[in-house]
Amino acid sequence: MKKRTPVSKIMTSDVITLNQTNGLETAEMLFKQNKIRHIPVVNGNTIIGMLSYTDLLRISFADAVNESEQDIDTVVYGMFTIEQVMAKNLVSVTSSTTIKEVAEILSKKEFHALPVVDDGKLKGIVTTTDLINYLLGQF
Fold first, then answer.
1. Which residues are in the CBS domain (predicted)?
2. Residue 81 lies in a domain
3. Which of 11, 60, 63, 128 could be joined to 73 by an S-S link, Cβ 3.0–4.6 Å?
4. What is the pTM of this model?
């Protein structure tokens, strides 16, 4: 395994994004259609937050009905905006950050995705799944 491999080798660069004016219904649709769990929230090319599928589950009543249920109770969507639900104090990395450094960050934090930002612009996203797939490819 190469120790200095940059995260740009494993990150998703064709990133699906939302902006703060989108509705939570749009977010749920994007999560399900694309089979993803994290969506950066942007203003132009600048990332302002990160929304996870878990964030939607937290504001719904789905877990009160059935813990194995994957459907979200969309009644609550009208009560919240993306800006209210998204994570705002983000940790980000640059495209030259090493995969090892990304692994260290993700192993110590309680989140599973990092935006990749160069010169203030969103360039990609790297997730724990990307990291695991990379590590599996090393064997």
1. 11-68, 86-139
2. yes
3. 60
4. 0.85
Task: Please check whether residue 24 is in contact with residue 85, taking contact to mean a CB–CB distance below 8 angstroms.
Answer: yes
CB contact set of 117 (below 8 Å; sequence gap of 6+): 47, 92, 93, 94, 123
Residue 23 carries which DSSP code?
-
Q: What is the CATH number of the domain that holds 68?
A: 3.10.580.10
Note down pLDDT in tens along the chain; length 139 residues: 567 899 999 999 999 999 989 999 999 999 999 999 999 999 988 999 999 999 988 887 644 554 444 555 566 777 889 999 999 999 999 999 999 999 999 999 888 999 999 999 999 999 999 999 999 998 8
In a domain, 2, yes or no: no
In a domain, 85, yes or no: yes
Domain count, the chain: 1
- 55 closest CA partner among 91, 21, 28: 28
The answer to whether 112 touches 37, Cβ cutoff 8 Å, is yes
Contact at 8 Å (CB) between 126 and 103?
A: no
